[in-house]
């Protein structure tokens, strides 16, 4: 009989304001379905400050994945939803395993408590919510919430999914004894790259426009680049969070020389792949990432990457696919210029990056995750 896996996540496709985990769960579920796993997603209608225009409680399809959306009230990041909890109380006992994504949300707390009550094993994916940058932003309320709620959730999980060794260490630092395992996030590997010219002087930033992404480092770094190569253009593609774009634009107005920067808004699908394939280099001067899916996406597009050491991507340096540097304007600018000024080096990095990305393809990643599911369920079924 096919394995039955219920995914629970605070918000889901087509909501895109909360970053990579939403698309990651979507792609994982699509591949699981292809492998014959019975999958369904339970979520809320949350989409930032607004709501998705979706039917409530009815089973519908999101990009081919069965999903039920429930209303959240009030409209906060915690996403409280009494109808969702009532549905989970009835539904969880019917499934072999529950996979819960994110902490510090009502859906994850409810799903973990109800899975314990039903005796159904759960996999918990914090997706960066226990990383230092995530805790530090609201430590005054997150630290006690960990002690009161999340510690029990993490310890009761049959498996705690980390996307990198660094994330696994942070999970264990907060909750010693957690049963962690590491499966990276996946990436779509294009068979053929888009037929677009790779611009000679184009930097791309792709992701949420949010303080954690390091615009306080990026803007002065770009000014340093502009002082050497004024023709370089930077394209910033991603959703604005909490008015951060206006703060970034104010920073740009204060630096000299002012770099050429354009804000594109969010890009998805083929548009995203074409943007990455057209770039000379991708930059991610983040103050903290549990994985950084955009790095893998850029590598798959054959684009060199410059990232901060707050991202778990030392392999870039080891495999010659990019630069992994201290998160200062000086080091970021130096690394960007080393790619922009040397087209032959950039080509070699791009080729190396494609080889690195091959290890993060969704088909391989899904099989890894399914192996953990099967091991957990088999262990729970032993007499």
Rg is 21 Å
End-to-end distance? 19 Å
Number of strand elements: 16
Low-confidence stretches are none
Structural notes for this entry:
44% of the residues lie in helices and 18% in strands. The chain has 383 residues and is of the alpha/beta class. It has 2 domains: 4-186 and 361-381, Glycogen Phosphorylase B (Rossmann fold, 3-Layer(aba) Sandwich); 202-360, Glycogen Phosphorylase B (Rossmann fold, 3-Layer(aba) Sandwich), CATH 3.40.50. The strands form 3 sheets. Strands 5-6-2-1-7-8-9-10 form an 8-stranded mixed beta sheet, with helices on both faces. Strand 7, helix 3 and strand 8 form a beta-alpha-beta unit. Helix 1 (20-34) crosses helix 14 (362-381), helix 3 runs parallel beside helix 5 (139-156) and helix 7 packs across helix 12 (329-340). The chain is globular. The chain starts with a strand and ends with a helix.
Descriptive key words:
alpha/beta, Rossmann fold, Glyco_trans_1, transferase, glycosyltransferase activity, six-stranded parallel beta sheet, 383 residues, eight-stranded mixed beta sheet, Glycosyltransferase, 14 helices
């Amino acid at each position: 009989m096919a394995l039955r896996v219920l995914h629970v996540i605070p918000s889901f496709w087509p909501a895109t304001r909360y970053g990579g985990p939403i698309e990651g769960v979507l792609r994982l579920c699509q591949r699981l379905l292809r492998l014959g796993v019975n999958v369904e997603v339970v979520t809320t209608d949350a989409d930032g400050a607004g709501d998705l225009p979706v039917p409530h409680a009815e089973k519908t399809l999101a990009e081919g994945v069965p999903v039920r959306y429930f209303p959240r009230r009030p409209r906060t990041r915690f996403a409280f939803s009494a109808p969702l909890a009532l549905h989970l109380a009835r539904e969880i006992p019917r499934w072999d395993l529950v996979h819960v994504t994110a902490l510090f949300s009502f859906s994850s707390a409810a799903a973990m408590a109800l899975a314990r009550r039903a005796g159904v094993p759960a996999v918990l994916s914090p997706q960066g919510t226990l990383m230092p940058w995530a805790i530090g932003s609201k430590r005054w309320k997150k630290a006690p919430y960990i002690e009161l709620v999340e510690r029990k959730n993490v310890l009761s999980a049959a498996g705690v999914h980390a996307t990198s060794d660094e994330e696994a260490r942070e999970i264990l630092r907060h909750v010693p004894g957690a049963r962690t395992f590491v499966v990276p996030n996946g990436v779509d590997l294009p068979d053929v790259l888009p037929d677009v010219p790779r611009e000679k002087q184009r930097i791309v930033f792709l992701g949420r426009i949010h303080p954690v992404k390091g615009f306080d480092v990026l803007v002065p770094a770009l000014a340093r680049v502009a002082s050497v190569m004024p023709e370089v253009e930077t394209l910033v593609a991603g959703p604005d969070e909490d008015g951060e774009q206006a703060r970034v634009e104010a920073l740009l107005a204060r630096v000299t020389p002012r770099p050429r920067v354009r804000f594109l808004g969010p890009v998805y699908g083929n548009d995203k792949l074409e943007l990455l394939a057209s770039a000379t280099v991708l930059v991610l001067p983040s103050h903290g990432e549990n994985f950084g899916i955009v790095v893998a996406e850029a590598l798959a597009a054959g684009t060199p990457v410059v990232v901060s050491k707050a991202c778990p991507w030392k392999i870039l340096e080891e495999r010659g696919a990019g630069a992994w540097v201290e998160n200062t304007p000086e080091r970021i600018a130096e690394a960007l210029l080393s790619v922009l000024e040397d087209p032959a080096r950039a080509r070699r990095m791009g080729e190396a990056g494609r080889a690195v990305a091959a290890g993060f393809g969704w088909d391989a990643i899904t099989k890894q995750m399914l192996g953990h599911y099967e091991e957990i369920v088999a262990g729970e079924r032993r007499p």
